[in-house]
Amino acid sequence: MTKASARTHSNALLAALLHDLRRLDDKGDVGHAQRGAKWASSHWQEIVTYFDLGENEVDRDEVITAISLHETPYANLAQAAYGKHKICADILKTADALDRYRLPKLKWWPNAEFIFLQPSSELSAFAFDLVSRSESQHISGIDSAESIWNSLGELCHAD
């Protein structure tokens, strides 16, 4: 596999932050990727301003493409855009899969059959622990965002 550049990592991070922004529900919300890509495209200047990103720090086309393709099965990704932005799209698809630990059924959890870029066992365990800890804190009454930051801090500072 080709090593991703720092810019591709930045693009993937931004795509991960935005990819489900137009999702309506956690079930089969077909089309949310296209809605998200359209929204991000039409609000691009606001996004780069909000995150204080310089014009050359991120690639608009790569971010928008990754968002638009993240719900598309690999079998349907024979598009030129995927070939051009494969690494970023694969990173986002894997990150999106790791987020599935928050769903209540084991059969909905990450499945290696559906992602090309396989996460390490350590990364999978980290994602599981982050979801478990943050959900537990949120159930106990802590604000959603605060519960995620608290859990991230605990995991990053664990011995």
Question: How would you describe this protein?
Answer:
By secondary structure, the protein is mostly helical. It has helices spanning 6-18, 32-42, 44-50, 60-69, 80-84, 86-98, 121-139, 144-156. It has a domain at 6-89. It has eight helices and no strands. Helix 1 packs across helix 6, helix 2 (32-42) packs antiparallel against helix 4 and helix 7 (121-139) crosses helix 8. The longest helix has 19 residues, at 121-139. It is globular, with a radius of gyration of 16 Å. The model has no long low-confidence stretch (mean pLDDT 87).
Structure described in brief:
By secondary structure, the chain is mainly α.
Going by helix content, strand content and strand pairing, the class is mainly alpha
Please tally the helical runs, counting DSSP H or I stretches of 4 or more residues: 8
Rg for CA atoms: 16 Å
The portion of residues forming beta strands comes to under 5%
Largest sheet: none
Q: Let me know the number of strands.
A: 0
Features:
mainly alpha; 159 residues; 8 helices
Show the helix and strand layout:
Blueprint: H1 6-18, H2 32-42, H3 44-50, H4 60-69, H5 80-84, H6 86-98, H7 121-139, H8 144-156
Helix pairs in contact: 1-4, 1-6, 2-4, 4-6, 7-8
